[in-house]
From TrEMBL:
This is MFS family permease. Gene3D superfamilies: MFS general substrate transporter like domains. InterPro entries: MFS, MFS_dom, MFS_trans_sf. It is a multi-pass membrane protein. It comes from the Bacteria. The keyword Transmembrane helix applies. Keywords: Cell membrane, Membrane, Transmembrane, Transmembrane helix. The chain crosses the membrane at residues 17-43, 49-70, 82-104, 110-132, 228-250, 262-282, 289-305, 377-396. One of its GO terms (molecular function) is transmembrane transporter activity.
Protein backbone atom coordinates (compact mmCIF):
# COMPACT_ATOMS: atom_id res chain seq x y z
CA UNK A 1 0.00 0.00 0.00
CA UNK A 2 1.50 3.33 -1.04
CA UNK A 3 1.26 6.55 0.96
CA UNK A 4 2.38 10.00 -0.08
CA UNK A 5 5.91 10.87 0.93
CA UNK A 6 4.78 14.02 2.73
CA UNK A 7 4.42 13.54 6.51
CA UNK A 8 0.97 12.17 7.27
CA UNK A 9 -1.52 14.28 9.17
CA UNK A 10 -1.61 13.70 12.94
CA UNK A 11 -3.84 10.84 14.03
CA UNK A 12 -5.93 13.35 15.98
CA UNK A 13 -6.97 14.82 12.63
CA UNK A 14 -7.45 11.48 10.86
CA UNK A 15 -11.24 11.39 10.65
CA UNK A 16 -11.58 7.72 9.72
CA UNK A 17 -9.23 6.60 12.49
CA UNK A 18 -11.10 8.68 15.06
CA UNK A 19 -14.44 7.22 13.95
CA UNK A 20 -13.13 3.66 14.31
CA UNK A 21 -11.65 4.46 17.71
CA UNK A 22 -14.79 6.20 18.98
CA UNK A 23 -17.14 3.46 17.85
CA UNK A 24 -15.16 0.64 19.37
CA UNK A 25 -14.31 2.58 22.55
CA UNK A 26 -17.95 2.81 23.56
CA UNK A 27 -18.55 -0.78 22.58
CA UNK A 28 -15.63 -1.98 24.71
CA UNK A 29 -16.98 -0.17 27.77
CA UNK A 30 -20.40 -1.65 27.11
CA UNK A 31 -19.02 -5.14 26.62
CA UNK A 32 -17.04 -4.98 29.85
CA UNK A 33 -20.28 -4.03 31.59
CA UNK A 34 -22.18 -6.89 29.99
CA UNK A 35 -19.54 -9.46 30.98
CA UNK A 36 -20.22 -8.75 34.65
CA UNK A 37 -23.94 -8.00 34.29
CA UNK A 38 -24.60 -11.35 32.57
CA UNK A 39 -23.12 -13.25 35.50
CA UNK A 40 -25.02 -11.15 38.04
CA UNK A 41 -28.32 -11.56 36.19
CA UNK A 42 -27.77 -15.30 35.76
CA UNK A 43 -27.20 -15.68 39.49
CA UNK A 44 -30.27 -13.55 40.28
CA UNK A 45 -32.45 -15.72 38.00
CA UNK A 46 -31.09 -19.14 38.99
CA UNK A 47 -29.70 -18.52 42.49
CA UNK A 48 -26.89 -20.84 41.41
CA UNK A 49 -23.24 -19.85 41.26
CA UNK A 50 -22.55 -22.86 39.04
CA UNK A 51 -25.10 -21.79 36.44
CA UNK A 52 -23.84 -18.22 36.56
CA UNK A 53 -20.37 -19.57 35.85
CA UNK A 54 -21.72 -21.53 32.89
CA UNK A 55 -22.99 -18.29 31.31
CA UNK A 56 -19.51 -16.79 31.60
CA UNK A 57 -17.93 -19.93 30.15
CA UNK A 58 -20.30 -20.00 27.17
CA UNK A 59 -19.00 -16.59 26.09
CA UNK A 60 -15.52 -18.12 25.91
CA UNK A 61 -16.87 -21.12 24.00
CA UNK A 62 -18.48 -18.83 21.41
CA UNK A 63 -15.22 -16.92 21.13
CA UNK A 64 -13.08 -20.03 20.66
CA UNK A 65 -15.49 -21.78 18.29
CA UNK A 66 -15.84 -18.91 15.82
CA UNK A 67 -12.46 -17.18 15.98
CA UNK A 68 -10.71 -19.04 13.15
CA UNK A 69 -13.71 -19.23 10.76
CA UNK A 70 -14.42 -15.54 11.42
CA UNK A 71 -10.91 -14.58 10.36
CA UNK A 72 -11.37 -16.43 7.07
CA UNK A 73 -14.71 -14.72 6.45
CA UNK A 74 -13.20 -11.30 7.18
CA UNK A 75 -10.66 -11.94 4.40
CA UNK A 76 -13.52 -12.65 1.97
CA UNK A 77 -15.97 -9.83 2.74
CA UNK A 78 -15.87 -6.02 2.78
CA UNK A 79 -14.43 -5.15 6.22
CA UNK A 80 -16.74 -2.16 6.72
CA UNK A 81 -19.80 -4.34 6.11
CA UNK A 82 -18.47 -6.95 8.56
CA UNK A 83 -18.12 -4.34 11.32
CA UNK A 84 -21.51 -2.76 10.64
CA UNK A 85 -23.34 -6.10 10.56
CA UNK A 86 -21.50 -7.35 13.62
CA UNK A 87 -22.18 -4.22 15.66
CA UNK A 88 -25.83 -4.18 14.59
CA UNK A 89 -26.14 -7.86 15.48
CA UNK A 90 -24.62 -7.20 18.88
CA UNK A 91 -27.15 -4.43 19.52
CA UNK A 92 -30.05 -6.71 18.59
CA UNK A 93 -28.80 -9.58 20.75
CA UNK A 94 -28.32 -7.38 23.80
CA UNK A 95 -31.54 -5.41 23.50
CA UNK A 96 -33.40 -8.74 23.52
CA UNK A 97 -32.78 -8.93 27.30
CA UNK A 98 -34.62 -5.74 28.31
CA UNK A 99 -37.31 -6.51 25.72
CA UNK A 100 -37.83 -9.98 27.19
CA UNK A 101 -37.88 -8.56 30.72
CA UNK A 102 -40.54 -6.03 29.72
CA UNK A 103 -42.76 -8.45 27.78
CA UNK A 104 -42.45 -11.73 29.71
CA UNK A 105 -39.30 -12.76 31.58
CA UNK A 106 -35.59 -13.40 31.08
CA UNK A 107 -34.64 -17.08 31.27
CA UNK A 108 -31.39 -18.93 31.81
CA UNK A 109 -31.39 -20.41 28.25
CA UNK A 110 -31.86 -16.87 26.90
CA UNK A 111 -28.73 -15.72 28.72
CA UNK A 112 -26.82 -18.73 27.37
CA UNK A 113 -27.75 -17.71 23.81
CA UNK A 114 -26.78 -14.07 24.45
CA UNK A 115 -23.40 -15.09 25.89
CA UNK A 116 -22.60 -17.49 23.03
CA UNK A 117 -23.60 -15.03 20.31
CA UNK A 118 -21.71 -12.25 22.08
CA UNK A 119 -18.49 -14.24 21.99
CA UNK A 120 -19.04 -15.26 18.36
CA UNK A 121 -19.74 -11.71 17.13
CA UNK A 122 -16.61 -10.40 18.84
CA UNK A 123 -14.58 -12.77 16.64
CA UNK A 124 -15.73 -10.94 13.51
CA UNK A 125 -15.39 -7.35 14.67
CA UNK A 126 -11.85 -7.44 16.05
CA UNK A 127 -9.97 -8.82 12.99
CA UNK A 128 -12.07 -6.60 10.69
CA UNK A 129 -11.08 -3.56 12.73
CA UNK A 130 -7.39 -4.52 12.59
CA UNK A 131 -7.64 -4.84 8.81
CA UNK A 132 -9.43 -1.49 8.64
CA UNK A 133 -6.70 0.22 10.64
CA UNK A 134 -4.12 -0.85 8.07
CA UNK A 135 -6.16 1.00 5.44
CA UNK A 136 -6.69 4.24 7.37
CA UNK A 137 -3.40 4.56 9.32
CA UNK A 138 -0.02 5.05 7.58
CA UNK A 139 2.67 2.52 8.65
CA UNK A 140 4.78 5.21 10.36
CA UNK A 141 1.86 5.92 12.72
CA UNK A 142 0.80 2.32 13.36
CA UNK A 143 2.61 2.13 16.70
CA UNK A 144 0.84 5.25 17.95
CA UNK A 145 -2.49 3.88 16.75
CA UNK A 146 -1.95 0.59 18.58
CA UNK A 147 -0.94 2.46 21.74
CA UNK A 148 -4.26 4.28 21.53
CA UNK A 149 -5.96 0.91 21.12
CA UNK A 150 -4.25 -0.36 24.26
CA UNK A 151 -5.31 2.69 26.22
CA UNK A 152 -8.85 2.36 24.95
CA UNK A 153 -9.05 -1.22 26.21
CA UNK A 154 -7.54 -0.34 29.58
CA UNK A 155 -9.99 2.50 30.11
CA UNK A 156 -12.89 0.23 29.19
CA UNK A 157 -11.79 -2.44 31.65
CA UNK A 158 -11.52 0.21 34.36
CA UNK A 159 -14.87 1.89 33.73
CA UNK A 160 -17.01 -1.06 32.68
CA UNK A 161 -17.30 -3.23 35.84
CA UNK A 162 -18.15 -0.44 38.31
CA UNK A 163 -20.55 1.06 35.77
CA UNK A 164 -22.21 -2.34 35.41
CA UNK A 165 -22.66 -2.66 39.17
CA UNK A 166 -24.09 0.87 39.40
CA UNK A 167 -26.51 0.41 36.50
CA UNK A 168 -27.53 -3.06 37.68
CA UNK A 169 -28.49 -1.55 41.01
CA UNK A 170 -30.79 0.89 39.21
CA UNK A 171 -32.32 -1.73 36.91
CA UNK A 172 -31.21 -5.28 36.19
CA UNK A 173 -31.51 -4.94 32.43
CA UNK A 174 -30.12 -1.38 32.18
CA UNK A 175 -26.47 -2.45 31.52
CA UNK A 176 -27.63 -4.48 28.49
CA UNK A 177 -29.69 -1.59 27.14
CA UNK A 178 -26.68 0.75 27.43
CA UNK A 179 -24.41 -1.81 25.79
CA UNK A 180 -26.87 -2.25 22.92
CA UNK A 181 -26.72 1.52 22.43
CA UNK A 182 -22.90 1.45 22.30
CA UNK A 183 -23.06 -1.23 19.59
CA UNK A 184 -25.49 0.89 17.59
CA UNK A 185 -23.12 3.87 17.90
CA UNK A 186 -20.24 1.66 16.71
CA UNK A 187 -22.26 0.67 13.63
CA UNK A 188 -23.02 4.33 12.84
CA UNK A 189 -19.39 5.39 13.32
CA UNK A 190 -18.18 2.63 11.01
CA UNK A 191 -20.75 3.57 8.36
CA UNK A 192 -19.37 7.14 8.45
CA UNK A 193 -15.81 6.02 7.59
CA UNK A 194 -15.04 7.46 4.15
CA UNK A 195 -12.19 5.24 3.02
CA UNK A 196 -13.39 2.08 1.27
CA UNK A 197 -12.50 -1.07 3.22
CA UNK A 198 -13.04 -3.83 0.66
CA UNK A 199 -11.85 -7.39 1.03
CA UNK A 200 -8.58 -7.88 -0.89
CA UNK A 201 -8.82 -9.31 -4.36
CA UNK A 202 -7.98 -13.02 -4.34
CA UNK A 203 -9.39 -16.32 -5.61
CA UNK A 204 -12.35 -17.57 -3.58
CA UNK A 205 -12.88 -20.98 -5.12
CA UNK A 206 -11.50 -22.86 -2.12
CA UNK A 207 -13.55 -23.80 0.94
CA UNK A 208 -13.73 -21.82 4.16
CA UNK A 209 -11.92 -24.64 5.95
CA UNK A 210 -9.10 -24.41 3.42
CA UNK A 211 -8.92 -20.67 4.02
CA UNK A 212 -8.50 -21.30 7.75
CA UNK A 213 -5.74 -23.83 7.16
CA UNK A 214 -4.02 -21.43 4.77
CA UNK A 215 -4.09 -18.65 7.37
CA UNK A 216 -2.62 -20.84 10.11
CA UNK A 217 0.00 -22.05 7.63
CA UNK A 218 1.02 -18.49 6.78
CA UNK A 219 1.38 -17.69 10.46
CA UNK A 220 3.58 -20.76 10.93
CA UNK A 221 5.83 -19.79 8.00
CA UNK A 222 6.10 -16.07 8.87
CA UNK A 223 8.81 -16.59 11.48
CA UNK A 224 8.89 -13.12 13.11
CA UNK A 225 5.12 -13.14 13.64
CA UNK A 226 5.15 -16.80 14.65
CA UNK A 227 7.85 -16.22 17.25
CA UNK A 228 5.95 -13.24 18.65
CA UNK A 229 2.75 -15.26 18.90
CA UNK A 230 4.41 -18.29 20.48
CA UNK A 231 6.27 -16.24 23.08
CA UNK A 232 3.08 -14.32 23.87
CA UNK A 233 1.10 -17.53 24.26
CA UNK A 234 3.60 -18.74 26.85
CA UNK A 235 3.72 -15.35 28.58
CA UNK A 236 -0.08 -15.26 28.82
CA UNK A 237 -0.03 -18.47 30.85
CA UNK A 238 2.52 -16.97 33.21
CA UNK A 239 1.01 -13.49 33.48
CA UNK A 240 -2.56 -14.67 34.03
CA UNK A 241 -1.41 -17.42 36.35
CA UNK A 242 0.61 -15.05 38.53
CA UNK A 243 -2.19 -12.46 38.72
CA UNK A 244 -4.73 -15.17 39.60
CA UNK A 245 -2.39 -16.59 42.24
CA UNK A 246 -2.15 -13.18 43.89
CA UNK A 247 -5.93 -12.72 43.88
CA UNK A 248 -6.66 -16.19 45.27
CA UNK A 249 -3.89 -16.00 47.87
CA UNK A 250 -5.22 -12.67 49.14
CA UNK A 251 -8.72 -14.12 49.33
CA UNK A 252 -7.40 -17.08 51.29
CA UNK A 253 -5.70 -14.65 53.65
CA UNK A 254 -8.99 -12.89 54.41
CA UNK A 255 -8.47 -9.69 52.41
CA UNK A 256 -11.80 -7.77 52.30
CA UNK A 257 -13.58 -7.74 48.90
CA UNK A 258 -13.49 -3.94 48.88
CA UNK A 259 -9.68 -4.03 49.01
CA UNK A 260 -9.59 -6.58 46.20
CA UNK A 261 -11.80 -4.29 44.13
CA UNK A 262 -9.41 -1.40 44.64
CA UNK A 263 -6.55 -3.69 43.69
CA UNK A 264 -8.23 -4.58 40.40
CA UNK A 265 -8.86 -0.89 39.76
CA UNK A 266 -5.16 -0.19 40.28
CA UNK A 267 -4.38 -2.68 37.52
CA UNK A 268 -6.66 -0.76 35.18
CA UNK A 269 -4.93 2.51 36.04
CA UNK A 270 -1.54 0.88 35.48
CA UNK A 271 -2.74 -0.33 32.09
CA UNK A 272 -3.80 3.18 31.11
CA UNK A 273 -0.43 4.57 32.24
CA UNK A 274 1.28 1.79 30.29
CA UNK A 275 -0.51 2.75 27.08
CA UNK A 276 0.70 6.34 27.54
CA UNK A 277 4.22 5.11 28.22
CA UNK A 278 4.14 2.85 25.16
CA UNK A 279 4.34 5.69 22.63
CA UNK A 280 7.61 6.96 24.13
CA UNK A 281 9.07 3.45 24.35
CA UNK A 282 8.18 2.65 20.73
CA UNK A 283 10.10 5.69 19.50
CA UNK A 284 13.29 4.53 21.23
CA UNK A 285 13.50 0.74 20.81
CA UNK A 286 12.89 -1.94 18.21
CA UNK A 287 9.95 -4.33 18.43
CA UNK A 288 12.17 -7.28 19.36
CA UNK A 289 14.06 -5.34 22.04
CA UNK A 290 10.79 -4.17 23.62
CA UNK A 291 9.33 -7.69 23.74
CA UNK A 292 12.50 -9.21 25.18
CA UNK A 293 12.89 -6.51 27.82
CA UNK A 294 9.26 -6.63 28.91
CA UNK A 295 9.19 -10.42 29.25
CA UNK A 296 12.36 -10.46 31.35
CA UNK A 297 10.98 -7.63 33.50
CA UNK A 298 7.77 -9.62 34.03
CA UNK A 299 9.77 -12.67 35.09
CA UNK A 300 11.67 -10.49 37.58
CA UNK A 301 8.49 -8.94 38.96
CA UNK A 302 7.08 -12.42 39.56
CA UNK A 303 10.17 -13.37 41.54
CA UNK A 304 9.62 -10.32 43.74
CA UNK A 305 6.08 -11.55 44.41
CA UNK A 306 7.56 -14.38 46.48
CA UNK A 307 9.26 -12.07 48.99
CA UNK A 308 6.21 -10.73 50.85
CA UNK A 309 2.50 -11.53 51.16
CA UNK A 310 0.95 -8.11 51.88
CA UNK A 311 -1.64 -6.73 49.48
CA UNK A 312 0.50 -3.64 48.89
CA UNK A 313 3.59 -5.62 47.95
CA UNK A 314 1.77 -8.13 45.74
CA UNK A 315 -0.39 -5.44 44.16
CA UNK A 316 2.62 -3.26 43.40
CA UNK A 317 4.42 -5.85 41.29
CA UNK A 318 1.31 -7.06 39.47
CA UNK A 319 0.49 -3.41 38.69
CA UNK A 320 4.05 -2.92 37.41
CA UNK A 321 3.42 -5.86 35.12
CA UNK A 322 0.31 -4.18 33.71
CA UNK A 323 2.34 -0.98 33.32
CA UNK A 324 5.08 -2.49 31.14
CA UNK A 325 3.12 -5.11 29.21
CA UNK A 326 1.30 -2.40 27.25
CA UNK A 327 4.51 -1.54 25.41
CA UNK A 328 5.09 -5.11 24.22
CA UNK A 329 1.45 -5.61 23.23
CA UNK A 330 1.49 -2.37 21.27
CA UNK A 331 4.77 -3.15 19.52
CA UNK A 332 3.67 -6.67 18.57
CA UNK A 333 0.28 -5.54 17.26
CA UNK A 334 1.75 -2.73 15.15
CA UNK A 335 4.39 -5.01 13.66
CA UNK A 336 1.97 -7.84 12.92
CA UNK A 337 -0.57 -5.59 11.22
CA UNK A 338 2.10 -3.99 9.03
CA UNK A 339 3.94 -7.13 7.90
CA UNK A 340 0.81 -9.20 7.24
CA UNK A 341 -0.37 -8.97 3.61
CA UNK A 342 -3.94 -7.66 3.18
CA UNK A 343 -5.16 -11.02 1.92
CA UNK A 344 -4.15 -12.63 5.24
CA UNK A 345 -5.01 -9.93 7.77
CA UNK A 346 -8.27 -11.42 9.01
CA UNK A 347 -6.95 -14.96 9.26
CA UNK A 348 -3.60 -13.95 10.72
CA UNK A 349 -5.20 -11.83 13.44
CA UNK A 350 -7.77 -14.53 14.21
CA UNK A 351 -5.17 -17.30 14.41
CA UNK A 352 -2.85 -15.22 16.59
CA UNK A 353 -5.69 -14.14 18.87
CA UNK A 354 -6.91 -17.72 19.17
CA UNK A 355 -3.47 -18.88 20.27
CA UNK A 356 -3.16 -16.08 22.81
CA UNK A 357 -6.69 -16.31 24.22
CA UNK A 358 -6.74 -20.06 24.81
CA UNK A 359 -3.72 -19.72 27.08
CA UNK A 360 -5.48 -17.39 29.53
CA UNK A 361 -7.85 -19.96 31.12
CA UNK A 362 -4.95 -22.42 31.28
CA UNK A 363 -2.98 -19.98 33.42
CA UNK A 364 -5.96 -19.29 35.68
CA UNK A 365 -6.85 -22.95 36.19
CA UNK A 366 -3.27 -23.98 36.91
CA UNK A 367 -2.99 -21.16 39.44
CA UNK A 368 -5.87 -22.57 41.48
CA UNK A 369 -4.65 -26.15 41.31
CA UNK A 370 -1.04 -25.32 42.19
CA UNK A 371 -2.03 -22.93 44.97
CA UNK A 372 -4.05 -25.65 46.64
CA UNK A 373 -1.31 -28.24 46.16
CA UNK A 374 1.94 -26.42 46.97
CA UNK A 375 1.12 -22.91 48.23
CA UNK A 376 1.68 -19.35 47.06
CA UNK A 377 5.46 -19.11 46.82
CA UNK A 378 6.09 -22.34 44.83
CA UNK A 379 3.16 -21.51 42.54
CA UNK A 380 4.56 -18.04 41.87
CA UNK A 381 7.99 -19.52 41.15
CA UNK A 382 6.46 -21.88 38.60
CA UNK A 383 4.86 -19.01 36.73
CA UNK A 384 8.07 -16.97 36.93
CA UNK A 385 9.84 -19.89 35.27
CA UNK A 386 7.19 -20.04 32.55
CA UNK A 387 7.65 -16.32 31.93
CA UNK A 388 11.37 -16.97 31.70
CA UNK A 389 10.63 -19.48 28.92
CA UNK A 390 8.66 -16.82 27.03
CA UNK A 391 11.52 -14.34 27.45
CA UNK A 392 14.04 -16.94 26.27
CA UNK A 393 12.01 -17.66 23.13
CA UNK A 394 11.93 -13.94 22.31
CA UNK A 395 15.62 -13.49 23.14
CA UNK A 396 16.91 -16.29 20.91
CA UNK A 397 14.60 -15.59 17.96
CA UNK A 398 16.81 -14.37 15.12
CA UNK A 399 13.93 -12.78 13.17
CA UNK A 400 12.92 -10.72 16.20
CA UNK A 401 16.44 -9.36 16.55
CA UNK A 402 16.13 -7.77 13.11
CA UNK A 403 12.77 -6.07 13.62
CA UNK A 404 12.75 -2.26 13.30
CA UNK A 405 11.16 0.39 15.49
CA UNK A 406 7.45 0.84 14.88
CA UNK A 407 8.22 4.34 13.59
CA UNK A 408 10.32 2.67 10.86
CA UNK A 409 7.78 0.05 9.74
CA UNK A 410 7.33 1.90 6.46
CA UNK A 411 10.91 0.94 5.54
CA UNK A 412 10.15 -2.80 5.39
CA UNK A 413 7.87 -4.73 3.07
CA UNK A 414 5.07 -7.03 4.22
CA UNK A 415 5.94 -10.71 4.53
CA UNK A 416 4.91 -13.07 1.79
Amino acid sequence: MAYAEAPPQPLGRNRDFLLLMLGQAGSLVGSSMTTLALVMLAYTITESAAQAGVVSAVYGVGLAAMMLPAGAIVDRVDRKKVMIVTATGGAVVLVSIPVAAAMWSVTFPHLIVVAGLGGALTCFYNPAEMAALKEVVPPVQMGTAMAANQGRGAIASLIGPPAAALLYGIGRTLPFLIDALTFAIAAVCTAMVRRPLPAPQRPRSQSLARDVVEGVGWLRRARPVRDLVVSTMVSNIAFTGAATTVLLALQQGGTPPSHLGLLQASYGLAGIAGSLLASAVLRRATVGAIVRSVFWLLAGFQLFLTLHASIWWLGLFVALGYLVVGSSNTAMSAYQVHVTPPTMLGRSEAAASFGRVVMIPIGSSFAGVLLEAVGRVPTTLVFAAVMGVAATIATFSRPLRSTPKTTELHTIDPLR
